[in-house]
Amino acid sequence: MPASTPFGRALARKRQTQPAPQEESMLQPLLSGAIDNLTGAANVLGTPGAMVNRALMGENPLMPLLSPWEGKYHRQGRDVLRHHGLIGKKDTWGNFAAGLAVDLITDPTMWLMPGKAALTPMGTMAKKAGLLRYVGLPCRPAARAERPWGD
């Protein structure tokens, strides 16, 4: 199209205003590789829970062992709930919370840490400071007198 026609001038202006294609930064492949490695590590750590979830769905629980790095055969808590018809197909915050609860309950690695070892570093500091004795006090009527704060 010659630039002398109205359509040709508009096309020339459009070409001038479009941004030049971005060159791939040297950092992009590095970040992509790091994210892939973190995802793979998370998949490996989630393999025991995926095995339990597959068993709850009546599927072969050993399948996640075939490709633990990829997570190809992993099933989430939401998948278990959907399989049993307990939640709908649409992703909602309620479905997310229910699926997360199933993931936490069915993950065998969650049950390997006994007592004090299960506390986070902040929880350990709170215990040393004596703050954990107040946890749950508002729920117990007999313990209301023990509270250091007023009614």
Structure in words:
Helices cover 46% and strands 0% of the residues. The protein has helices at residues 6-17, 27-45, 47-56, 77-83, 93-106, 121-128.
Please count the helical segments. 6
Describe the largest sheet: none
Shape: extended
Q: Could you name the ranges where pLDDT drops below 50 across 5 or more consecutive residues? A: none
Proportion of residues in extended strands: under 5%
List keywords for this structure.
46% helix; extended; single chain
Task: Provide a brief overview of the structure.
By secondary structure, the chain is mostly helical.
Please render the helix and strand layout as text.
Blueprint: H1 6-17, H2 27-45, H3 47-56, H4 77-83, H5 93-106, H6 121-128
Helix pairs in contact: 4-5
